[in-house]
Design goal:
The complex is a heterodimer of chains A (117) and B (231).
Chain A (H helix, E strand, L loop, with lengths): L3 H5 L2 H12 L1 E2 L1 H11 L8 H13 L3 E8 L2 E8 L1 H36 L1
Antiparallel strand pairs in A: 1-3, 2-3
Helix pairs in contact in A: 2-5
Chain B lengths: L5 H13 L5 H18 L6 H8 L9 H42 L5 H26 L4 H25 L5 H27 L3 H20 L10
Classes of the chains: A alpha+beta (117), B mainly alpha (231).
Chain lengths: 117, 231
């Protein structure tokens, strides 16, 4: 499992991308889907997920639908029009970041080869 | 998969409330999340209460209330960003009015006074609101809060002094001199002391302090010191 520090910076993008792919989801479903897709390597904690979902709702990137299951409410989250744009921007930014990181890691590899040779 | 009774859902609701979760939306989310975990992970033979208390620590490091604190902080950050942007427009517009009014004044064109007078209240409101929301929504040290309050007061006094001066109302001089005095004799020394502790860029701190003092001294020299202070 990856450290929470690594996951923290990408959590927003992970959630936005999941909602982009799956339409509407609720909190527990998001945590389970991430675990399933990453073979338990990334685990989103509830303590990090809900503040983020509420903040994304406040910034109007997400909208909610409430369904009642007996006495309890289930809030489904989906992307708004603005949220779709934010999601695209965040995903592009993360992809670019990964590519840049890759260059950086490969460059270090090249340097160390140079030193050994 | 077990199915929870209404009493069990109520028990979870009360536990969540007693752990300091008061936001209704967050409460609803946590109740549903805990219920779903129990329904999916608890076996028929498990005791509901023991199982509930065993899954509770998954939700926090120290206590459950930290989720609510984190939620409020993130929502405040969003609000702060929006408000700061709006106030930025207000301040830019009032600065534009002030600069245009000053140009009109220099060129002796009509409408200079109304432009200057209308820009200053906007500038004051913009500065005061920016300071207030910064202090409310940003986690900033106490000394920084004092400095922000002080500079807001200085802007407030100076702007009002300006309005009084243009309108030829009494107390204009004392308001402006008081604001300049506060800037040069109180704000700048406090700013230097505070920034030297927190900022690594001493060159920038020095430059800022010099510019503040220069502005203050220049404005002070523009005053006719022979004129009565309370006029």
């Amino acid at each position: 499992m990856y450290s929470s520090e690594l996951v923290k910076g990408t959590l927003r993008t992970i959630v936005l991308n999941l909602l982009k792919e799956n339409g509407r989801m609720y909190g527990y479903e998001i945590t389970q889907r991430v675990k399933e897709l990453t073979d338990d390597k990334i685990q989103i904690t509830e303590g990090a997920l809900y503040p983020l979902l509420h903040a994304l709702e406040a910034s109007e990137d997400l909208e909610t639908e409430v369904e009642f299951i007996g006495k309890r409410q289930r809030k489904y989250y989906r992307l708004t029009k603005q949220g779709k744009q934010t999601s695209k921007k965040k995903i592009d930014e993360l992809r670019e970041f990964i590519e840049t990181l890759q260059i950086l890691l490969d460059a270090n590899k090249g340097t160390s080869h140079g030193l050994i040779n | 998969m077990v199915s929870l009774t209404d009493e069990q859902v109520d028990f979870i609701r009360k536990e969540i409330e007693s752990h300091g979760i008061s936001l209704p939306d967050l409460q609803a989310n946590l109740i549903d999340h805990m219920c779903t975990i129990i329904e999916n992970e608890m076996s028929e033979n498990d005791d509901f209460h023991s199982f509930f208390y065993s899954i509770l620590p998954r939700f926090f490091h120290d206590n459950l209330h930290e989720i609510e604190m984190e939620t409020i902080q993130l929502i405040h950050q969003q609000k702060f960003k929006h408000m700061k942007k709006t106030l930025g427009y207000v301040l830019a517009f009032s600065t534009f009015l002030l600069v245009t009014g000053s140009l009109f004044k220099i060129l002796h064109l009509a409408g200079a006074a109304i432009l200057i007078v209308s820009s200053l209240p906007l500038l004051i409101i913009g500065a005061v609101l920016t300071a207030l929301i910064s202090m409310k929504y940003q986690t900033i040290p106490k000394t920084q809060k004092i400095l922000t309050t002080l500079i807001t007061l200085i802007v407030f006094l100076f702007a009002f002094g300006g309005i009084f001066k243009v309108q030829h109302w009494p107390f204009a001089n004392i308001l402006m001199i008081l604001s300049i005095g506060l800037l040069c004799l109180v704000y700048v020394p406090m700013y230097v002391v505070q920034q030297r502790k927190t900022s690594a860029d001493t060159w920038l701190v020095g430059l800022n302090s010099f510019l503040f003092l220069l502005a203050g001294i220049t404005l002070f020299l523009l005053f006719d010191l022979k004129a009565p202070l309370f006029k």
